[in-house]
Amino acid sequence: MRPLFHPDTEAITLQGVLHALSDPARLAIVRALRESPDLSCSKAAPVPEMAKSTLSNHFRILREAGLLCSRREGTQYANCLRLDDLDARFPGLLDAILNAAEPSDS
């Protein structure tokens, strides 16, 4: 099995991060991982009935943008946010985005 691509910290771009977070499903995944690190893909899914292929694509986009790290654990992947790397590149950006994009209670 091929190893997953994770960009070096210096290769994380603002455009890549903003693009990855522009999708509501990916934003929900990041929010779930912020609340509970080391979630499997299915547990971080924004909706339980999301197709596995769609979910895999969302995780690939987030991983390739440098937002998360995925590691194989048995038959699943555990995922966590690369908070230190993101703060090193763009201090406070992820928190600002997540705070500005808080789901409304209405």
UniProtKB/TrEMBL annotation:
Matches recorded under SMART domains: HTH_ARSR
Organism: Oceanibaculum indicum P24
UniProt keyword DNA-binding present: yes
Pfam families tied to this protein: HTH_20
Transmembrane segments annotated in the record for this chain: none
Domain HTH arsR-type, chain residue ranges per copy: 6-101
Cited InterPro entries: ArsR-like_HTH, HTH_ArsR_DNA-bd_dom, Metal_resp_trans_reg, WH-like_DNA-bd_sf, WH_DNA-bd_sf
Keyword Transcription found: yes
GO molecular function, one term: DNA binding
Annotated protein name in UniProt: ArsR family transcriptional regulator
Keywords: DNA-binding, Transcription, Transcription regulation
